[in-house]
Amino acid sequence: MSSIPERRQAIEPREISQESDTLLRITWADGVGCDYKAAALRRACPCAQCVNEWTGERTLKPEAIADEVEINDLAIVGRYALNFRWSDGHETGIYSFQYLRDLCEHQEVAGQLP
Prior knowledge:
The chain is an alpha+beta fold and 114 residues long.
């Protein structure tokens, strides 16, 4: 089991870099680097328009998001999250650093980075 400082480091970004309109890279304080494709991030949006707040069921259909969707802008929310403005006009999702790290680790286990 990881110690609290190790777990905190795992969800603290050291560098956030928009590599292109379709690729985001986060290097975490523990040295792990994660690449996120825009379309995969958009499909994983955690907002109330994309996920039922009561059941947790994803209401956004992945096929509704074009593979060509782009990150038009991104902003840091407090010290805990990112907010994206997408080329399809969507901009309500707040992606916590914990959520982003979990997405990265889940996709590494599945053998596919976003």
